[in-house]
């Protein structure tokens, strides 16, 4: 099988049951989910490299779920959705489990700290972008928006967890006035 088909050379692509312009909101949303999954691939690699086995395993599951979310978005008509409210519930349990091991938040956190945390913060922002793109698509599973909203929260918490496990400090926002006083 060849990797190229040439069918998209004129700016269209196929989804289940339809041909769409590559600039269509649905195609943009599918692309944003794919971008997120690519970022997640790096986060998985980074967590594995740093010996964060629990995070690695959790992220691999999320990568498969993102593939399912892309499949849900590729349905032009109502279908049997792969992502359900049970997936959002599982994300909430994951967030709660990680949060229980972390010190309480004392302010706003900037992306940073360890390499795995930086990769997970990238996933967090990519999840927010995917959520915005999905929000502009008509006729999608009603489970997708809560899932992506919770997913970004999960990546934020996992980034904090990675820093905590690697004994790295989260990067706290200190504000312009405080920075000026320190100079």
Automatic annotation (TrEMBL):
Q: Residues in domain Cobalamin adenosyltransferase-like?
A: 3-161
Any one GO molecular-function label of the UniProt entry = ATP binding
Q: What is its EC number?
A: 2.5.1.17
Q: Give the pathway.
A: Cofactor biosynthesis; adenosylcobalamin biosynthesis; adenosylcobalamin from cob(II)yrinate a,c-diamide: step 2/7
Family annotation (InterPro entries): CblAdoTrfase-like, CblAdoTrfase-like_sf, PduO-typ
One Pfam family per UniProt: Cob_adeno_trans
Broadest EC class? Answer: transferase
For this protein, the record's Gene3D superfamilies field holds:
Cobalamin adenosyltransferase-like
Q: Which keywords describe this protein according to UniProt? A: ATP-binding, Cobalamin biosynthesis, Nucleotide-binding, Transferase
One Gene Ontology term from the biological process aspect of the record: cobalamin biosynthetic process
Catalytic reactions on record: 2 cob(II)yrinate a,c diamide + reduced [electron-transfer flavoprotein] + 2 ATP = 2 adenosylcob(III)yrinate a,c-diamide + 2 triphosphate + oxidized [electron-transfer flavoprotein] + 3 H(+); 2 cob(II)alamin + reduced [electron-transfer flavoprotein] + 2 ATP = 2 adenosylcob(III)alamin + 2 triphosphate + oxidized [electron-transfer flavoprotein] + 3 H(+)
Family, similarity comment: Belongs to the Cob(I)alamin adenosyltransferase family.
List the protein's name.
Answer: Corrinoid adenosyltransferase
**Species:** Shouchella clausii (Alkalihalobacillus clausii)
């Amino acid at each position: 099988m060849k990797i190229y088909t040439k069918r998209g050379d004129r700016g269209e692509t196929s989804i289940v049951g339809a041909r769409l312009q590559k600039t269509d909101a649905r195609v943009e949303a599918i692309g944003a989910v794919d971008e997120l999954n690519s970022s997640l691939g790096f986060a998985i690699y980074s967590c594995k490299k740093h010996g964060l086995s629990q995070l690695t395993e959790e992220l691999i599951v999320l990568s498969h779920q993102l593939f399912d979310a892309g499949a849900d978005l590729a349905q032009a008509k109502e279908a049997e959705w792969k992502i359900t409210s049970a997936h959002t519930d599982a994300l909430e349990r994951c967030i709660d489990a990680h949060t229980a091991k972390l010190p309480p938040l004392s302010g706003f956190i900037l992306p940073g700290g360890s390499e795995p945390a930086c990769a997970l913060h990238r996933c967090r922002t990519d999840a927010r972008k995917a959520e915005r793109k999905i929000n502009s698509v008509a006729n999608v599973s009603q489970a997708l928006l809560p899932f992506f909203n919770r997913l970004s929260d999960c990546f934020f918490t996992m980034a904090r967890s990675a820093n905590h496990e690697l004994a790295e400090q989260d990067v706290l926002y200190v504000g312009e006035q405080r920075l000026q006083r320190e100079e």
